[in-house]
């Protein structure tokens, strides 16, 4: 016969122990996990009263212990956010302006200078001679220095040499900066002028204010000579004279004197 009385319930309540607060492990380090240990003891008592009663009732006490361990979650990562005024990144600076194009005419005058070309004439040979240095005229029948045009003293990018030629058989001088004209001079027996093969440098096509240099030629003409006795002889005399000018009025005047225009042979500075 089983009997559970009120006093047994009171005893059970007295024996039952419940941890009022979890026992937490001492804090040692932030990275060390924190454990919460809860210990609960449950006591159950059973009284058996024999029937018929033989002796005092038999008491059986059963004690059950339940332990719960709770572990703190893994260490967390702390993110610090700094608050302040957000200043926008300034825009990149604008690209530098492109350099101003270099004026080739000004560049030429910066690295070189214009020199005067003089014209001399030999009436005996009926030949015109051109040079930039009057000291190169050492007699030879040439006189009458006349400035006719200008050229650059040194070569700068884009300029062409103005070449001077000489043909001894006909005592003829010539100048040109055109390749085809130069080749025709060489084929015709001309050689480089020994005193000054290059007069200077010129722009092609009238660049930087260049003026066309006209070439005029006088070939074989009738030559008359009057002797003191009054006799006049007319014969053919070989004349091969080339004259150069930048003035149209002089071109027209030379045509009236028997010269024929052979076109432009270079572009020179006035």
TrEMBL record:
Record flagged with keyword Signal: yes
Pro residues bias locations: 88-102
Positions of region (Disordered): 83-102
InterPro entries: DUF5648
Residues of the DUF5648 domain: 112-193
Keyword vocabulary terms for this entry: Signal
UniProt signal peptide: 1-23
Entry annotated with the keyword Signal: yes
Pfam families: DUF5648
Record protein name field: DUF5648 domain-containing protein
Organism: Hohenbuehelia grisea
């Amino acid at each position: 016969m089983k009997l559970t009385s009120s006093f047994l319930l009171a005893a059970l309540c007295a024996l039952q122990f419940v941890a009022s607060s979890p026992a937490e492990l001492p804090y040692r380090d932030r990275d060390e996990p924190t454990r919460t240990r809860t210990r609960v003891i449950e006591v159950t008592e059973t009284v058996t009263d024999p029937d018929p009663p033989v002796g005092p009732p038999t008491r059986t006490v059963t004690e059950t212990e339940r332990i719960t361990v709770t572990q703190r979650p893994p260490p967390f990562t702390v993110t610090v956010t700094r608050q302040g005024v957000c200043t926008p990144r300034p825009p990149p600076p604008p690209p530098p302006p492109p350099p101003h194009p270099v004026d080739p005419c000004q560049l030429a005058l910066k690295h070189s200078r214009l020199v005067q070309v003089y014209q001399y004439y030999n009436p005996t040979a009926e030949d015109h001679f051109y040079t930039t240095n009057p000291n190169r005229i050492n007699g030879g029948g040439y006189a009458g220095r006349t400035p006719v045009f200008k050229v650059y003293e040194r070569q700068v990018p884009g300029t062409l040499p103005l070449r001077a030629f000489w043909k001894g058989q006909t005592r003829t001088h010539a100048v040109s900066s055109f390749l085809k004209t130069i080749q025709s001079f060489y084929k015709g027996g001309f050689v480089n002028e020994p005193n000054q093969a290059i007069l200077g440098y010129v722009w092609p096509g009238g660049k930087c204010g260049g003026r066309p240099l006209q070439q005029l030629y006088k070939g074989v003409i009738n030559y008359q000579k009057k002797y003191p006795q009054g006799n006049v002889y007319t014969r053919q005399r070989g004349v091969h004279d080339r004259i150069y000018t930048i003035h149209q009025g002089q071109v027209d005047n030379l045509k009236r004197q028997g010269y024929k225009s052979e076109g432009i042979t270079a572009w020179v500075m006035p």
